[in-house]
Queue: 2 jobs
Job 1
Amino acid sequence: MAAERRARRLLSTSSFWLCCLLLLERRASGAAAARSGSPPQSPGSSIRTFTPFYFLVEPVDTLSIRGSSGILNCSAYSEPSPKIEWKKDGTFLNLVSDDRRQLLPDGSLFISNVVHSKHNKPDEGYYQCVATVESLGTIVSRTAKLTVAGLPRFSSQPEPSSVYVGNSAILNCEVNADLVPFVRWEHNRQPLLLDDRLNKLPSGTLVISNATEGDGGLYRCIVESGGPPKYSDEVELKVLPDPDVTSNLVFLKQPSSLVRVIGQSAVLPCVASGLPTPTIRWMKNEEALDTESSERLVLLAGGSLEISDVTEDDAGTYFCIADNGNETIEAQAELTVQAQPEFLKQPTNIYAHESMDIVFECEVTGKPTPTVKWVKNGDMVIPSDYFKIVKEHNLQVLGLVKSDEGFYQCIAENDVGNAQAGAQLIILEHDVAIPTLPPTSLTSATTDHLAPATTGPLPSAPRDVVASLVSTRFIKLTWRTPASDPHGDNVTYSVFYTKEGIARERVENTSRPGEMQVTIQNLMPATVYIFRVMAQNKHGSGESSAPLRVETQPEVQLPGPAPNIRAYATSPTSITVTWETPLSGNGEIQNYKLYYMEKGTDKEQDVDVSSHSHTINGLKKYTEYSFRVVAYNKHGPGVSTQDVAVRTFSDVPSAAPQNLSLEVRNSKSIVIHWQPPPLATQNGQITGYKVRYRKASRKSDVTETLVTGTQLSQLIEGLDRGTEYNFRVAALTINGTGPATDWLSAETFESDLDETRVPEVPSSLHVRPLVTSIVVSWTPPENQNIVVRGYAIGYGIGSPHAQTIKVDYKQRYYTIENLDPSSHYVITLKAFNNVGEGIPLYESAVTRPHTDTSEVDLFVINAPYTPVPDPTPMMPPVGVQASILSHDTIRITWADNSLPKHQKITDSRYYTVRWKTNIPANTKYKNANATTLSYLVTGLKPNTLYEFSVMVTKGRRSSTWSMTAHGTTFELVPTSPPKDVTVVSKEGKPRTIIVNWQPPSEANGKITGYIIYYSTDVNAEIHDWVIEPVVGNRLTHQIQELTLDTPYYFKIQARNSKGMGPMSEAVQFRTPKADSSDKMANDQASGSAGKGSRLPDLGSDYKPPMSGSNSPHGSPTSPLDSNMLLVIIVSVGVITIVVVVIIAVFCTRRTTSHQKKKRAACKSVNGSHKYKGNSKDVKPPDLWIHHERLELKPIDKSPDPNPIMTDTPIPRNSQDITPVDNSMDSNIHQRRNSYRGHESEDSMSTLAGRRGMRPKMMMPFDSQPPQQSVRNTPSTDTMPASSSQTCCTDHQDPEGATSSSYLASSQEEDSGQSLPTAHVRPSHPLKSFAVPAIPPPGPPTYDPALPSTPLLSQQALNHHIHSVKTASIGTLGRSRPPMPVVVPSAPEVQETTRMLEDSESSYEPDELTKEMAHLEGLMKDLNAITTA
């Protein structure tokens, strides 16, 4: 038994060692196979292993010097060795024919001689290393930036200064940021050694703290960047002894906000000066910093703070506090810490079979939040139905095919840098089992449980494959076992399916052997799918079943909207959205999809969320976003929620103001103009602007001005004459100050130039025509003492007024583009300033024909023109888009394929944007240049379609115009009223009128209606007018039930979708009279009815015309015929003869005493009578005409003198002459002078009667014999003839020459002359020249008992009522100088009537003699006045 046990033990031991030897042999053979490059063999098939392929060294950002050598390191590991190539700005470099750049053996790129100039920068850019292994794949490295240090230039230089012992001083030496490492200082031409007291800031500035006498001397800074050293100005620093007096505490250098990357160092400068010497301490977020015990915080010379190895915790606000015991000052700065992208989870290698679904996982972090893109074998992966980005950064590949095999890389990038991580995908044959357990990157539906295949029979195709259940998003398939294996207990199945028409196939495996059904999920509703089933046994996969075509059902049973969705901003770049579970879930909610979109765009983004809240990062600052949530269940997406909008927090502007320009006003002031930063970079409401300026010679002395509100200009005064100044502007929000513009220079005038007159003509003008353009050059005016603010260039075919372009006063040439070939253009040039434009200078030119090939794009003014061959054109911009911002503004954006992928412009190229509208058809293009990939086009017309195109120019190379983009500006309220407003009466309906009009010339949109306002008072408030709305675009409207014979005023206002436009001017219309044809005729004759007429400017005192019946005189339609007029004339003549005879009888019977009384009466200057029964009621004014009381009144003149009025000047009834009160006089004259059309055919009597005017009296004395007109007053006495002779000879009756004077005045009216007349207000019936009377209340009647003789003809004088005119008065053929005349007012009608009655009943011959004596005295006084 013991021997047997020993034998068994020996046998088992030998078996153990035999197994060990076999295992070692297998491992050795496998390792040898791996080294030889062939995969190890497994029973029945081969399995390829993952090949190590990665970068050992990747390129990093490099700073190089012009003319020196540079190297970008790169090394990759693989078996076999990979092939290394390099890309620059996304394009492969051809290193074979490049004599400056060569590939080193390890794969690094070596540049032997870095080339860099202002216009040629071939080496600066973004580089990427590409490693390729044939039949394996390609990987790319991170992107590295090569920066070439520019030429040494000093943006500020040291200036002479002084410092007290123990105090601090700074010497500026600011250079380009890339040259700061090459800056050093010299003291008295010796290198300056830096220590605890002497420190150089990152900007190059030298700080000297605790100054000693040894610090005095000469200082200069030197830039040594490979070439000859660049020296700054050498300045002296004086060290002064302590004066034992105090001085104000000031900052010599204040900290400024910094952005640093984790691991870098940050220096916050802070230097203060004052007496006593101040001490510096620092605080962060209101907590004191301990710089003595900290290893990372160091206090440098002068008080600056250095933070080494920056971490995220170092971010915050830092306060520098200077204190010298007497006072304390502080300054603050923000430190922002950023982090490069870093992988939290990298992609892993994956084995898979065709038709499977896989997911590459990738999680990254960084600040700002990195963006992730995927690359397969060096090419970008474009998301599609089968390549999807899930869970923000993961890549999902559905339905694998053989071509999907290769290397996949996850590339993360932010503003700080970029990083990459990769993994390999190997697709095995279906008969090869996946060698390990299913990795987490394989979906459960595609897990393959095949055991190692053995040799044997394969199963046949499954039978009777049918779709037993078809829904909207899933299909259940069933089948029977293959005929070769009826039991099928050890058979598994794979279902392959694809969309109809798609070659990529996906697979779903059964969960356990023998199962003959499977459910395919995540399908699309109403979509046709092709299915086939394949069986597998232990020997491998068998035959495939015949394809089965199935169409899914339409969508049903979906979740409802998620309730209580809320969104709120958490930072300037992030928003958090929360919601709750839908009330009508229709099944278990699987996940949610959160959609969000920036307001004003149509690009919606989405993210998958499994919880009830999510935070969206990386949003734009101060931008409004809309959010909605869709719940998913097993059937698919449900009903979306309503959009909720929220705006991110504001922040400081991220861009500087635009279009900064300077205008030199005079020798002491400059106006600075700017435009706000681009809207997308304002990051909030702009609250103001900070303007900083300095002398160009003293760049450290900066003055700051704060401009509040939205003001876009600032006048800087108090400047020095003939001095150059630098200006820059930064925008402000409530969060702080944004970046400033570049410094812009302008020089004040040496002396104040003259701007009280326009500039003189330019001294020369030259034109050079090309095919479609003309080059214009000129020289300024010879007189340089007049301000020139610019030049206006006008041009056009045959006339220079078609187009006008204004250019800056510094410009001396301009190219007029987009002209027609073989056309004759006239060009004018004018200099202008704020006063106006000067004298133009003209030239003409004929553009060349199309066949002329001598046109060149490159020209030099005042140089001989040399034809230059056309360079190779550039590619035009692509993706031109027009974004409408307002009614007059459109933003144009585009992309440039000749730029790197990040679309950053690093060269001197510029873009030209042109635009036009097709209405009218011959509209010219307008152009503008831009140096960015967008341009803001302003000054457009509302509701107008514009087309835009862009071209790029780089040096002499230009592209063709891009494809056009179109945009229609938003509508605006109408800016002009409806035009051609007319009002007419409707035929047969006098109470109905029709208003017609035309649309406004500037509708600014589709007219949706009109509003008609009408009123009887043109001066009424607009809310008191009656309103008639008109819907639509009708251009006519009826208004009914108006009052007859009433003036109406009409205004019309147009409206569109944006609001109401301005009102039209008031149009007057008087409704017709419907009583009789006579009234209609009279109204039409006076212009009171008919077509509506536009009102002139009537003034605020205008009153509508008073209605009244017209006098029968002075109108051609008067019913009084010529026979009646003849009878009246004869009657008046007879009465006049009788009066003359009676006066002659009285004159012959006068005695000597009577003659004496007459003389005494004639010499009296004032005669008055008391009337019986009227002394209390009537107080007639003095009838004598005195020199100091003379007044001239203007006479109205009708456009067409009435022949009846001229021939028959005597009024026919008492209504013709009507006194009026003084209050109406001015109004009547004003109305008649400003609006004479209504009385063009009225006589004087008609106007006086109808409008209540006071009659006007004209006193012309001509050379013709007098015809004495005496009132018919009853008397029984006769006078001697001698008395009559004396009376008639010595005293000219002013009424004597009535007929002849009217004849003369009629002739004067025909010749267009104006004869001034005097208004005489009579007081006594015998002492006045005419007695006016007021018409009685009843109808007008003819009263022969009260004759009157008006002594004027109607003439119109277009002068103000108060202007003084002169009346030309003459006697007996002798002309007299003009004399102003003042006339008293007339008494009331009742008083005048009673006067006449009293005079008829009580006057005796003696009293009549006295009256005649008074009359004679009156005329003598009048002769004396006119003779003087």
Note: The chain is about 10% helix and 35% strand.
Job 2
Amino acid sequence: MLRRPKPTDSEADLLREQEKFLISGTQSAANVVRRPDKRRGEAGGEEGENEGRQKDVVTIDDLPDQLPPLTPAPPKKSRFKASRVTFEDEDAGEILDRHDTHVSAVLSRIVERDTSSTQISLPALTGMAFPKVLHRSETSSQVPLSSAGGKKSIFARQIAAQRLKEGKTPSHCAPKAAQTPEHREQNLRSENSMDTDQCGAAVDQITADSCPSLLSGQGLGGPDSSGETMRIHRENQVKLQAMSQSEILQEQRKLLSQLDPRLVDFVRSRKAQSIPSSASISKQPQGKSSKDNFPLENVSRESDSSATGAAVLFQKPQEVEMEGEEELPSQPPAAVTEEDLLLKPQKKWVHMDKLEPEKLEWMRDLPSPRRKGTKKAMQARFDFAGSLIPPTEDLPTHLGLHHHGEEPERAGYSLQELFLLSRSQLIQQRSLALSTLANILSKARSGEYLSVLQGSVVSTLLDAGLLFLLRFALDDGVEGVITAAVHALKALLVCPEDEECLDCTFSWFRGLASFPLLPSAHEEEEEEEEGLPECMKETAKEKEEKKSDHDVARQDVVKGLLKMKLLPRLRYILEVVRPSPRVVQNVLQILTRIARHSSSSATQVLDSPRLMEMLVSEFLPTSWTAPSSPLPQSVYGLPLASAMKLLRVLATSGRHACARLFNSLGVRERLPYLLSAAEPSELLLEPAEALRITTEAYRLWAVAAGYGQACKLFIDLYQGLAKAVQSVHRVLVPSDPLLHLQLQRVLALLSLLTQVTHTAGCHQELQAGMVSSQGEECPPPPPVSWGHVSGLQASLLGHLKGFVKSLDHAVQKDSSLAVIPAYLIYLEAYYHQLSRQNCFKPVETLQELEQLTAEVLLPLLSHHVVQGLIKNLKPSSVVCNVQSSHHVPETSPSLPGLACPGWRDHPGLVVPSSPFPLLTGLGLLLQTITGIHKGLSCKFTGLLLSEPVIGYLRSCSQAIPTMSHTRAWLLRHEHHLLYLLLRLAHRLVPIEPNVAKHASLYHQVALVLLPWLLPGSEYLGHELLSSIIFSKDFISEGHSGGPEAVELGELKLQEGTQHCSSPSLHTVGALLREACVQLPSIRGCFLTQLAHLEPLVLMSRDALLGRNPWISSHLLTELTGPTVPSDWPFLPLVSLYERTGVSNGGGLAVEELPQGALQAVTHCLQWLLLLEVWREEALKVILPVAKLARLSCVFLCSSDLFLERPVQKLTWGLFRLLTRQSRLDSLDLNVPPPGLASFQDLYFALLTQYEAVSFGDRLFGCWVLLPLQRTYSASMRLAVFGEHVGMLRSLGVTLEQLSIPIERFTSPPEDSLPLLRLYFRSLVTGTLKPRWCPLLYVVALSHINSFIFSQDAAAQEVEAARHSMLRKIYYLTDEVLRNHLLLFRLPQKHSEFGFDTYKQLPPIREKHLESILKGQDSSDDKGD
């Protein structure tokens, strides 16, 4: 008996059981039954016939049995299949078409195919051993080219030959009669086109073709649609042949005028497609130009336009302009002939016996590049190193710079070609394109293309989508492509010169602080949210999340990269790909640039998963082995200075980020491994890298100490730091090739000691504050106290003395000048904090300071090397050299930079010849020691009185610097020096007469410096306002006869004035005397107005005074503009207007002013009067129209503020000053004042306010009359005589009261016809009378008189108005007005009415009047 299979049976057991079953002949327990396939037409009754042979059937229940209705395309049939050797049922295409019709037919029912009755056929027997091969010669003999319809492919000619054998005419072949040479020539002569831009067309193609080229008849319902189409086509041919050329042209024009232009374009495109693209110019008949070949012209034009459009998608082509002669247009090269070929074609060569010139064009020698220059801009091409290739340069082809793109004769690649190659499928092409783009970006960022290219390469590439291209390339799976993409991204983001300059200024005063590299904020108008309440408006974060990657990257490159998930990809590259050392360095530099972007970007770098942990563990290890070569194959497991610098930049973003680095990421434990060694050479690293990483370690530690953190390390590593300090003189060997790196290490060490000293000086204050805080939040005292740092001062002071003496040695001079500023800054920190300690001993300290001054500071200041440096003050200044001669490298608004490339080649703050670091350190120390020992101030008088310093301050007082990222980081340091010089002057002016002589210069510099101060310098501005700007000592004119001099100077101007009801200029002296008395109150007023800056002032004070535990971040606030506005003297007036003034076009806003408003306005006007008289240069940055607009707030603040006596007096004085001849010439009311859309809007509000509350006030009237001068826009005069004509009754300002010459209102004559009509209407209706508004009455008379008697040619409408107005004047019943209008001569200030008149009309005018009146009489007679 057979047994059932078991799971343990092997394959041999199963086969053995199967053999037993077959031998036994037992019937199986289950039968496989074949079901009939109804799709093949099999009936169910056939089961009996096939019982003996069963088939396997597999069914799948998930798919339907019923096939979906499909309408497959008809199978293609081959005309040559019958003549080929085939095997039956072995056509794979038919098998697939029959069996594999739908996926459900395959998967729902899999049926074994029945092959029992299939016949196996052998190939057909022939007399040849192999099937016959079609030869080209046989095809040519079968059908001639003329019958084949011109140039056809072999396949097409074979079909034509087969049809000829069958006795059929090919549908695409023309009759013989249509192909005769005579007929073809006739057709060419009668060419005409539907294209109006071309002079000829291919009508011969229309008449020659035996079938229509556009219509096929498909879609007609009839049974013989194609025949009907051919019949219509033949009729058209007959008609065309019967017509003359002129008739064809006429019909063509008629058709073009009736047809839709889009339909015409469609016909052209179809006709162009029917002409072979390989048509050659050489095949045209003789005497015909290339313009006659309409189809080819169209096709080439379309292809050119499409190629241009594709290029525009990538970039706007960069262009290089070359001066020279214009070249003549080059002739097209002759076609390739058989004689030009080195190897002649032969008949026996298959498919190669016919010469095809158009396919051999690429084998032609390259045309030589242009020999002469051209004024036409040309597309820029670059070599693989990123260098621009001149169009005239003929480079050899073996360099690989020639290709078959546009302009094949020119070597190099354009930007759009590099973009295309960067997306190639070939790895080498992608890598080469990305590497070339990286080199181009590097050279563009360094400014090498500025003189030869139009436009910005960086901006063009960013607009073309470079950012997305590089981001896609970073996702490539090939390491070579990733390497090139990282290199290109680094070239785009990182400027090595910028980083070098920031590193050089790290040891300067507040050098560890920097501005975030954020693009300038552009406020977007949200019109759809204007009416929504605040709670429903979207937040800035929600708006940012809704933006696409493209929109974000267009505004901010770094933010766009972060949105595109750059950080996880960089982490993957470092962690998984583990690339070469160069790529690792590039990635670290990219991360550093991202961290400099903003505090939020730095936080994203810190929060990126596993990124920082991997960086610290791989590139800042606690143990490592010495590399086997100076250039190791891998830097994994070795300390890298770039990684340490990244941590330093991250720590700069905020104290919390710094704490995370030191506490969570283990940086605190890793620093001792790098800094505990006595010498950097003991670190088992290459010497240069050892110096770099120890320098960066000191800098990172200095940043942390700047927050009051990591000071416990100072105690632990004190011994090593003391050894490093003692070895300073020993390591700074002039012959050392690594001297520059040694200097940077020493400067970083001194910066660390300075910050630790500041932190230790705060220990006592924090200790006392923690005791007395009683639960209030107070920073904990640092672990380092004053006793830990006081011992280093003697050693460092000895070093300073040694370096001062080294200035005499030419070899050691440069290194000494580099380190002396850092020593001076350290001593300032030491003495500043010493004076705040309980252990401070005044007597001993004063003696010590006197010794320091005598032995160090005075010898240093008087040394000839330092004196030579001071002479470079003005050339090195950023403030004085706004228009610098050197080119500013390329920057993009979305990717700001510091523009430092080439900084060594031109004067500046950072170059070794700059005196700014030395003078800043010296000024800091002098500020501190003169505060402790005030008697030392007089010893430094020579510094302020030296000619270089005086000349530098004079240049600064007249400078108007611009603010941008490229200048702000340097301007901040120069502002520090200017402030320190002014602080020294503040101590010396009261006690030194020689210094007091220049007090007005120092005051001028303080006034211009205040609105220059950038974010982070608010404390300096507060100190300037509190000490210098409002100091009587610096306004020397106030106590040296200044007011009296003003009165005497203006007396001559008032001698001729007899009647003047307004205050004259001789009262300005009294106003100035009162203002000088009120200077302390004026200072209090302005400090109150700037009280909103108090938090920023306190933050700035903590940073500038070294209160490290209170500093929250070394990253300064975003650079949006100066801290104090340039029009700050108007601040009390503007703020009062914003609180209580009118809005929306006038009207009284409040009935009562806030308390103290009158006093604030009075102090503001006093200060403005003082500045206008004695410090006019300080206000030149404010436009005259802005001054007028700000002062207009006096009238708009309330209904009676301008009527108050002190306000009225001061405003009159300011009005007289603003309306002097020189000021009026510079006043341009067409320029919109800052903060306003236009001056006209403000003036309309003034008119409304005047009508409401003026009560005919003369001051307000003068203010309203000022903009009505003829020079300014007529819209303001139209508003007075149109909408506000009622105010003319109360505008009683006389010519004597107005300090503006009347000629500025009357000259030149008015040319606005609507305004002249308003003038005339106001005079005739009695709205404008001399006793109500004498000034405008004279103005209106003058303009009307000039208009009616003008002899200038004018338009018909103007002439008609002129005659009509003259006739109406003649017939006026008011004799006085009539005489005034007709007899007006000139304005006269002291006459009764303000003008002179003729006794009678001059003869010319009288004759003109008579001619007009006679013309009217004659027209009246004709009417009668």
Note: The CA atoms of residues 757 and 789 lie 6 Å apart.
